[in-house]
Design brief:
The complex is a heterodimer of chains A (159) and B (160). Chain A has 159 residues and is mainly alpha-helical. In chain A, 82% of the residues lie in helices and 0% in strands. Chain A has one domain. In chain A, α1 packs across α6 (124-148), α4 (53-84) packs antiparallel against α5 (90-122) and α5 (90-122) packs antiparallel against α6. The relative contact order of chain A is 0.14. Chain B has one domain. Chain B is built from seven helices and no strands. The longest helix of chain B is centred in the middle third of the chain and has 33 residues, at 90-122. Chains A and B meet through α1, α3, α5 and α6 of A and α1, α3, α5 and α6 of B.
Chain lengths: 159, 160
C-alpha cells in the first residue's frame, strides 16, 4: 500500500522532483525551471509605481539575503538528517525537530517583517503580490523537499 | 513573458491543479489525489507501538478537528479574496494579507502543539513521522491553492 502512494506521489511531483534533486543551489533551480533568476521573475510579476521601484527592490534584496542565510541553516539540518536518519536516536530526532521548528519560525517572522516593509515601500498591492509569489514558491520548495526526504523509521517498517 | 511563466508553472503543477479545482472539500482532495481518505494514508505511514496506539490516534483525531477548524478560516479568507480580487482597495488587500499571515501563524502553532502531545502519546518517532507527512500534505495543498488563485492585479496587466 505504501508503495502505491509513493508511486502516485512520484507521478504527481515528478517534474518538480527532477529539479529538486539539484536544488542545493537555488539559483540553478530557478534557472532550470523558469530559465530566469528569481529577481527577474518577481520584477516581471510585481506592479510598482516607478517612484517606489528602487526602495522596494532594495528591500527585496535585503529580504533575499536574510532568507538565504536561513536557507543555508536549513540545508545543514536537512543534510545532517539525510546522512544520519538510519542511526538517529530519540534525542537526535527531538533536537532536529526543535531546530526545524525554530528555523520555520524565523522564516515566517522574516516574511511578516518584510511584508510590512515592502508594503510601506511599494503599497499593499505590490506587497500582496510579493506574498502570493513567495508563498507559492515556498510551498513548491517544501513539497519537493518532503517528497525527497526519507521518512523517519522507514527502514524499521521495511524490516 | 508572463505567459511563459504561467505555461511552465501549469506544466509542472497541472496534475495537482486538476485536483485542486475540487479542493474545497478536504475529503475529496485526498480521495481524488490518492484514492483513499487522509486517515488511511497517515495510519499506513506512521508506526505507533501497539501499547500507545489508542492514545496516539485519539490525539491525532483531536488534531484533525483543530486543523479543520483552522482550514475553514483559511477558506473564508480565500473566498473573500477570490470573490473580490478584481475590485480590492489597498485597505482590503492589507486586511486579507494580515489575516492570511495570522492564519499561517495559527496553523504552525497548532502543529507544534500537537507534535508535543503526539510525542507524549506515541513516542518521538511516531510524532516526527506525523510532522513529516503533515507538512508534506500542507505544502501540497498550499501549492494547489496558489496555483489556482487569481494573481493580485492580473486583470490590470491584461488591460495594459
Amino acid at each position: 500500500m505504501k508503495k502505491l502512494y509513493i508511486i502516485i506521489l512520484s507521478c504527481i511531483l515528478a517534474p518538480v522532483a527532477i529539479h529538486a534533486q539539484t536544488e542545493t543551489n537555488e539559483a540553478d533551480f530557478f534557472k532550470a525551471a523558469f530559465g530566469l533568476n528569481k529577481l527577474d521573475i518577481y520584477q516581471n510579476l510585481i506592479n510598482l509605481a516607478p517612484e517606489n521601484s528602487d526602495s522596494f527592490w532594495g528591500l527585496f534584496q535585503q529580504y533575499e539575503e536574510e532568507r538565504l542565510a536561513l536557507r543555508a541553516e536549513k540545508i545543514i539540518l536537512i543534510q545532517a538528517y539525510s546522512d544520519n536518519y538510519m542511526i538517529l536516536d530519540n534525542k537526535d530526532i527531538d533536537k532536529m525537530v526543535k531546530t526545524s521548528f525554530s528555523l520555520n519560525d524565523k522564516t515566517s517572522k522574516l516574511l511578516r517583517k518584510y511584508y510590512k516593509k515592502l508594503r510601506k515601500a511599494g503599497g499593499s498591492k505590490a506587497a500582496g503580490q510579493f506574498m502570493q509569489i513567495e508563498t507559492y514558491f515556498r510551498s513548491i520548495a517544501k513539497a519537493t523537499l518532503y517528497e525527497n526526504l526519507p521518512l523517519i523509521g522507514e527502514l524499521d517498517t521495511l524490516e | 513573458m508572463k505567459t511563459i511563466y504561467t505555461f511552465l508553472l501549469a506544466c509542472i503543477l497541472s496534475p495537482i491543479a486538476l485536483v485542486a479545482q475540487q479542493d474545497m472539500d478536504d475529503i475529496d482532495f485526498f480521495k481524488a489525489l490518492f484514492g483513499v481518505d487522509k486517515l488511511t494514508i497517515v495510519e499506513d505511514f506512521i508506526s505507533v507501538p501497539e501499547a500507545k496506539s489508542d492514545a496516539f490516534w485519539t490525539t491525532y483525531k483531536a488534531y484533525e478537528t483543530a486543523r479543520k477548524a483552522l482550514r475553514s478560516e483559511r477558506i473564508t479568507i480565500l473566498r473573500d479574496y477570490a470573490d473580490n480580487y478584481e475590485n480590492l482597495s489597498e485597505e482590503q488587500i492589507e486586511d486579507l494579507c494580515k489575516r492570511s499571515l495570522k492564519q499561517n501563524k495559527k496553523n504552525t502553532k497548532n502543529i507544534e502543539k500537537y507534535f508535543k502531545k503526539l510525542k507524549k502519546a506515541g513516542g518521538i518517532t511516531a510524532a516526527a513521522q506525523f510532522l513529516q507527512i503533515e507538512k508534506y500534505f500542507l505544502s501540497l495543498s498550499t501549492t494547489a491553492i496558489y496555483e489556482n488563485l487569481p494573481f493580485l492585479g492580473e486583470l490590470e496587466r491584461i488591460d495594459d
